[in-house]
Write a structure and sequence with these properties.
With about 650 residues, this protein is of the alpha/beta class. It has 15 helices and 23 strands. Strand 7, helix 3 and strand 8 form a beta-alpha-beta unit. Helix 1 runs parallel beside helix 2 and helix 12 crosses helix 13. The longest helix is centred in the C-terminal third of the chain and has 25 residues. The chain starts with 9 loop residues before the first strand and ends in a 16-residue tail after the last helix. Belongs to the Toll-like receptor family. It is a single-pass type I membrane protein.
């Protein structure tokens, strides 16, 4: 019959039991009870090939027809997938699987959505154990009840790997060993029990052939395989996403696994106390995953000495202290997503080739990293909080010299600080040599300081600054003494119309012309002259200050002789100080003789400024203009002053 079915595309069966061989079958349907098939594994080239895979879904659309006979594909398929297994049809499943004795081509079996009791589940396992099946996957298992001791014959099996995922046990009262012993004693190379809320697994009673063990996403704790020495062939152990807490206990668990090479302890609650007991790992352990735990710097005191690949990503490590760990075989180290502030050195990792420190708190990576780690071929240091300052310039130059060893450059290397450079790639940051070379900056600052000091010193000498400072000090001291001796005198009472400042060489003109023409004329003008009004016993400076303050105006008789007189300079300084401190217009300049600018000393810059900005009276050579000169001068100093008897000039009784 089948020899004439080479062009068959669709076949409908109704309550039949067949042993068939198909070539070009695309879909297999049974009226009322439907099995659907996937055509990917069906040959379409007309060749004489056998069906390799037949996924079947038993829908049981009519519950009253529970006497359905399973389709048997014997000696023609390598993989079979069945779904919706219940206590109603489990016996038919067992009967179906019984047809695949050893020597059959069926090697892969997948059962999905299995809801049966304990005895039925064990019957399925026992049947599979003595079939040709080598790889058995069972997903979404609900074990309803009645977990009791069951014998299990493990002998003569073709099984190599068992994968059990998403198991829910509804029986709340049973002995743990009744459940876990069945799995612990399995004589297979690979066992996976994942996402099943498993809280324990017993140690095998005899040496186990297990080489691969995967308990992903369960509720296992530090009690797992405690003092267990039967897993002597185990090479790979995956305990990801469980509830382990003590790293040292994990190390002792592995110490008896003599062939263990790979251990995954990621996404647990692991920590290590530096004062804890000494760790003892399997000497054969070459790859260890401790990512996403609660480990700190002390983890480096509890690591397998022969490890080659170590993953410590997403922990709480802040630094790798020198001398803390001696991992001479370590080639690959992942420290991403921790709290490192700098690149770790390689004093304890002399064979390190790959280092990942992405997403840490590194501001300015050490520029000597590749010198301390000469064997490193790739460094992943992107996505850190880089501070783009002078210290980072050496690291940027290091990248240019490394020959492409920085993974992710330049996109992953971006400034975080300062704020004005945030988002700028490190390769685009350019700082001047002066700003980044401390020695050059200090030398430049020193030279500028020396130049500034020299300029200030020159100006001080040229402008006679010490002289002005000395004058300011004398004026301050004089005012302080006056206040101390006569605190009641808050206001200075004017006694003179003008104080006369002149050079002794011009005294004849002052005594013969200036004083007679002002005092003997109208207006009762009183002039203050040092020869007759300075008070004996007081210092010259104090007398000058008192006279200037008690005078309405200060008359300066300017001539070449004036600029050569030191005391004239004092008087001009104090009068000028009064001009600014009291905001008064008290200065009167009389130019007795022209003064060539070149003979005025540099320290007389105030005199130059006054002559340039203020109007001065020039003594006329023509006698006819003298009257106008004296009239203008009297008008400038005219003010009513109280007389000694309290009266004012011109007042009578």
């Amino acid at each position: 019959m089948t020899e004439n079915m080479r062009s068959l595309r669709n076949l409908f069966l109704y309550k039949c039991l067949f042993a068939l061989t198909f070539w070009n079958l695309i879909s297999l349907s049974v009226e009322n009870e439907l099995f659907t098939s996937i055509s990917n594994n069906f040959p379409e080239d007309g060749s004489d090939k056998k069906l390799k895979s037949l996924p079947l879904l038993y829908t049981n659309s009519h519950q009253s027809k529970a006497n359905f006979d399973w389709v048997v594909i014997q000696n023609t398929t390598e993989s079979l997938s069945l779904s919706e297994i219940t206590n109603v049809n489990v016996k038919k499943l067992v009967a179906l699987l019984s047809n695949f004795r050893q020597g059959s081509r069926l090697q892969n079996l997948t059962l999905t959505n299995v809801s049966v009791d304990w005895n039925a589940l064990i019957d399925i396992f026992q049947t599979v154990w003595h079939s040709s099946i080598e790889y058995f996957n069972i997903n979404n298992v609900t074990q309803l009840s009645h977990i009791v001791p069951r014998g299990f014959n493990y002998s003569g099996t073709s099984m190599k790997a068992l994968t059990v995922k998403k198991v829910v046990i509804t029986d709340l009262y049973f002995l743990q060993d009744h459940l876990y012993t069945i799995f612990a004693e399995m004589n297979i190379a690979s066992l996976t029990i994942a996402e099943s809320e498993m809280i324990h697994m017993v140690c095998p009673l005899s040496d186990s052939p297990l080489r691969y063990l995967n308990f992903l996403k369960n509720d296992l704790t530090d009690l797992l395989f405690e003092n267990c020495d039967k897993l002597i062939q185990l090479e790979t152990l995956i305990l990801q996403k469980n509830k382990f807490e003590s790293l040292s206990k994990v190390s002792f668990m592995t110490s008896r696994m003599k062939l263990l090479k790979y251990l995954d302890m990621s996404n647990n609650l692991l920590s290590h106390d530096a004062a804890d007991v000494r760790c003892q790992w399997a000497e054969s352990l070459a790859e260890l995953d401790l990512s996403s735990n609660q480990l700190t710097d002390s983890v480096f005191e509890c690591l397998p000495v022969n490890v080659k690949k170590l993953n410590l990503q997403n922990n709480q490590i802040t630094s790798v202290a020198k001398g803390m760990a001696e991992l001479e075989s370590l080639k690959e180290l992942n420290l991403a997503s921790n709290r490192l502030a700098d690149l770790p050195g390689c004093s304890g990792f002399t064979s390190l080739e790959f280092l990942n420190v992405e997403t840490n708190l590194i501001l300015t990576p050490s520029a000597d990293f590749f010198q301390s780690c000469p064997r490193v071929r790739e460094l992943q240091a992107g996505d850190n909080l880089f501070k783009c300052s002078c210290e980072l310039q050496d690291f940027i130059r290091l990248e240019r010299q490394s020959g492409g060893k920085l993974f992710g450059w330049p996109a992953a290397y971006v400034c975080e600080y300062p704020e004005d450079l945030r988002g700028t790639q490190l390769k685009d940051v350019h700082l001047t040599e002066l700003a980044c070379n401390t020695t050059l900056l200090l030398v430049t600052a020193l030279l500028l300081t020396l130049v500034l000091v020299a300029v200030v010193a020159f100006l001080c000498i040229y402008l006679d600054v010490p002289w002005y400072v000395r004058m300011m000090w004398q004026w301050t001291q004089t005012k302080r003494r006056a206040w101390h001796n006569h605190p009641e005198e808050q206001e200075t009472v004017l006694q003179f119309h003008a104080f006369i400042s002149y050079s002794e060489r011009d005294s004849l003109w002052v005594k013969n012309e200036l004083i007679p023409n002002l005092e003997k004329g109208e207006g009762c003008i009183q002039l203050c002259q040092h020869e007759r009004n300075f008070i004996p016993g007081k210092s010259i400076v104090e007398n000058i200050i008192n006279c200037i303050e008690k005078s309405y105006k200060s008359i300066f008789v300017l001539s070449p002789n004036f600029v050569q007189s030191e005391w004239c300079h004092y008087e001009l300084y104090f009068a000028h100080h009064k001009l600014f401190s009291e905001n008064s217009n008290s200065l009167i300049l009389i130019l007795l003789e022209p003064i060539p600018p070149y003979i005025i000393p540099a320290r007389y810059h105030k005199l130059k400024a006054l002559m340039a900005k203020r109007t001065y009276l020039e003594w006329p050579k023509e006698r006819s203009k003298h009257a106008l000169f004296w009239a203008n001068l009297r008008a400038a100093i005219s003010i009513n002053l109280p007389m000694a008897d309290g009266k004012r000039c011109g007042e009578t009784d």
